[in-house]
Amino acid sequence: MDLILDGIRQAIALILTHDPETLAITLLSLRISLTATLLSLVIGIPVGVYLALVEFPGRRLVLGLVNTGMALPPVVVGLWVSIFLWRNGPLGDWHLLYTPTAIVIAQFIIAVPVVVGLTTIAIQQLNPKLRLQLLALGASRWQILWLLLREARLPLLAAIMAAFGSIISEVGASMIVGGNLQGSTRVLTTATVTEASKGNYGLALALGLILLALVYVVNLALTTIQQGEKKR
């Protein structure tokens, strides 16, 4: 119990004193995960809509791969990304390994199947007659897509929360491709692991609590938007 209270006290002290290192780590964590989430939305939502609306040979196989991807172990993703980014790997000339960009790439790969899978489900759950009604009213293809996305906006917001939650809290991929370099690629999850491994459990708990608070604030904002839309 004393350890937990010590962690809470340290978390409050780090926040109130605006500790530079903690602030830098927190901002980097937020920047990396928000960037990866936004990129996963740009790719994942169109792919999810396509899978929901278009029948093609092998569609079930693709959906099976997407559903499998929703459970990708982050450490495996980190391993594969690091292999591609190694100096003698296919993308080694880009010199991205052990940079924030490498973490963004790994987190994007983790998040995009989540977005694709949940978007597909969200669109498929809409009334099939809605698309026919829109066609009968003379709506263009882009108008139909926009209106379908608008109707599915609540589950799509849930997809955003799920994608963000799956990457802001992961540690394996970030550790492998980022290297946990102080002042460069150290994020809240890897910093927590580092402090715990050194026996600084109070500080590790403090960093963990800050991470939980960060996740809560982001999800609270998205939930507020979601519930506001629900009342309309």
Helix-strand blueprint:
Layout: H1 2-16, H2 20-53, H3 59-69, H4 74-85, H5 100-124, H6 128-136, H7 141-151, H8 153-168, H9 172-178, H10 188-197, H11 201-230
Care to describe what's here?
Helices cover 78% and strands 0% of the residues. The mean pLDDT is 89. It has one domain: MetI-like (MetI-like fold), CATH 1.10.3720.10. The protein has 11 helices and no strands. The chain has helices spanning 2-16, 20-53, 59-69, 74-85, 100-124, 128-136, 141-151, 153-168, 172-178, 188-197, 201-230.
What distance separates the N and C termini?
Answer: 45 Å
> What is the CATH-assigned architecture?
Orthogonal Bundle
> What is the string of SSEs from the N terminus onward?
HHHHHHHHHHH
| Mean pLDDT score | 89
Radius of gyration using CA atoms only = 20 Å
Helix content: over 70%
